[in-house]
Amino acid sequence: MGLNRYSLADIQEFFGRYRRLQEEWADFRFESFRASFDRIALQMEELREEDRRRERGTAPGHNLFFVLQMARDEARAHTPVLSYFLDPEAAHGQGYLFLKHFVNACKGKYENFPVPERDIGSALWHVDSERMTGFGRPDIMLGSVSLGYRLIIENKIDARDHQGQLDGYAKLIRKDQGRYAKQALVYLTVDGQTPSGASRSDSFQISYKLDLAEMFKAALSDVMAPNVKATVEQYLEVIRTL
């Protein structure tokens, strides 16, 4: 009976008004959303600009080891870099700093790790990388004849020692015992793995991720040259990714 009170025109007008109200409400919600979105977009752009300013000032992602895709390259990156830093006469200009920290790190891990009788900085050192010896070709050999001391370092990233490889270096140590009264064979791997073969008892296992990283961190505060400090910091980033 109630519907009979309204004509068809009245009902059509009602639904027309209802549709217009819906459209107005939709327009209002859209405009409200767009205003909110514009505010958020402006804030996001401000944050992006702040991030760009920070990157321009600090370049946190800059690392030439990653640019040159050498982060896991044992032969072209890690062995030359380590040999360079351990060489007191190298162009880093920090003298015996890294060598002393390396020996201290090894001694801190192994109580029986041999150390020179006199101060490391009191003598001349010679450093060789991958030099043929007749007993194999160690990655790094560094020693001082006047101190009667030598380190032989076998460096492994993604490979293991070859059959009898460290045995040959152990024989080299015994052959040169008269020249170097104190010697150490260091087996350097990412996680401090144990070498294969009988020579494992003659070697000291050192890891990149723990021992070498801590060594460079300890030395970092004493590095005087800003460019050398920056290189060490970049190398530490590489070690963390191994």
List the keywords.
single chain; 242 residues; alpha/beta; 2 domains; five-stranded mixed beta sheet; 5 strands; 50% helix; elongated
Secondary-structure blueprint:
Layout: H1 8-58, H2 64-67, H3 74-86, H4 97-109, E1 126-129, E2 140-144, E3 149-155, H5 165-175, E4 182-189, E5 203-207, H6 208-220, H7 226-241
Parallel strand pairs: 3-4, 4-5
Antiparallel strand pairs: 1-2, 2-3
Helix pairs in contact: 4-6, 6-7
- Order of helix and strand elements from N to C terminus: HHHHEEEHEEHH
* Number of structural domains: 2
Shape: elongated
Q: Report the C-alpha radius of gyration, rounded.
A: 34 Å
Count of helical regions: 7
Q: State the end-to-end CA separation.
A: 84 Å
What topology, given as strand order, has the largest sheet?
Answer: 1-2-3-4-5
Total strands: 5
Largest sheet: 5 strands, mixed
* Coarse structural class: alpha/beta
What is the mean pLDDT?
Answer: 86
Helix content: 40-55%
Q: Approximately how much beta-strand content do the residues carry?
A: 5-15%
Q: Uncertain spans, ≥5 residues at pLDDT below 50?
A: none
Report on this model:
The chain has about 240 residues and is of the alpha/beta class. The chain folds into two domains: about 5-60; about 70-240, no CATH class. Helix content is about 50%, strand content about 10%. The protein is built from seven helices and five strands. The protein has a five-stranded mixed beta sheet with strand order 1-2-3-4-5, sandwiched between helices. Strand 3, helix 5 and strand 4 (about 180-190) form a beta-alpha-beta unit. The longest helix has about 50 residues, at about 10-60. It is elongated, with a radius of gyration of 34 Å. The chain starts with 7 loop residues before the first helix and ends with a helix.
